[in-house]
Amino acid sequence: GYVLPWGQMSFWGATVITNLFSAIPYIGQTLVEWAWGGFSVDNPTLTRFFALHFLLPFMIAGLTIIHLTFLHETGSNNPL
Question: Domain Cytochrome b/b6 N-terminal region profile, which positions (predicted)?
Answer without folding.
Answer: 1-80
